[in-house]
Amino acid sequence: MIPKRIGVFDSGVGGISVLGNLIDSKAFDEIIYYGDTARVPYGTRSKETIIQYSLEALDFFKQFKLDLLVVACNTISAHGLGAMQKATDYPIIGVIEPGVLALTNNLQNKNAKILVLGTKATIQSQLYQTLLKDQGYSCINGLATSLFVPLVEEGIFDGKILESVMEYYFKDYIEKPDAIILGCTHFPLISKAIANYFQNQFPKLEKSILIHSGIAIMEYLKTKYTLQTSKTHSKVTFYASDNLEKLKKTADLWLQTIK
Ligand code: DGL
Q: What does UniProt list as catalytic (predicted)?
């Protein structure tokens, strides 16, 4: 099967950072993006609620007869993906397994220090930590950095406020992580700031490897499917459970910012 019409699901706007990579691949005729903006954030909610919301999103996608659904949210990938896969007869792919695979492709040293950043729900699920251990990595730190989500939504991608929040979360890191998994699809928007923070703390050491869900999922899809690139851009349609105009504005801004 060559996926041509795909859906992208996120709790809100975060998945736009993944959408950028899907668009750039020119591998899909049609991309249908749905953000559950009425109920975002998911990252502070319980597993049960995340599963319930994820299954409700499947009802929304029913009308489109998708070839494939990409869950462009780490929180949903951590908690809702299994239930979603059981409930459908078409493939649904989350971002966590691709993220782990991208790391293994970029980091051979199994004793390397890996820092996983994500929402509370993602970090508490322990899914990244477990999959990384399964790959033989021994030095993994999961850190919930939920405050980054509203900052990014506010358009704060650098500056003093972000720096103090980074200081708050990272002050106990006396060793530089060899790799940082941006385990939330909001975080690629502040990836430069995060990389700079550690670079400034440890100027003599090599830069940390950063893992981005959008890049990871495209690499993963290429290994799973024979993707055909076309000369034309995908037709992208946005849907939201609340304030579609705001979602579209954010999409315009983010797709420019992460270029
Ligand atoms: N973008 C979501 C993720 O990748 C987090 C936002 C939320 O809490 O809903 O986990």
A: 73, 184
Which residue among 84, 116, 184, 189 is the active-site one?
184
Q: Where are the alpha helices (DSSP H) in 62-109?
A: 74-79, 81-87, 96-106
- Residue showing tokens 């990409």: 70
pLDDT tens digit string along 181-228? 999 999 999 999 999 999 999 988 889 999 999 999 999 999 999 998
Residue whose structure tokens are 């509370």: 120
Q: How far is the CA of 24 from the centre of ligand 1 (A)?
A: 22
**Burial profile 221-237: b = 16 or more Cβ within 10 angstroms, e = fewer:** beeebebeeeeeebebe
pTM: 0.96
Q: Across-strand partners of 24? A: none
C-alpha R_g of the chain:
17
73 catalytic? Reply is: yes
Q: Which of 6, 8, 32, 73 is catalytic?
A: 73
pLDDT digits 0-9 by tens, 43-63: 999 999 999 999 999 999 999
- Hey, what are 78's tokens? 């951590």
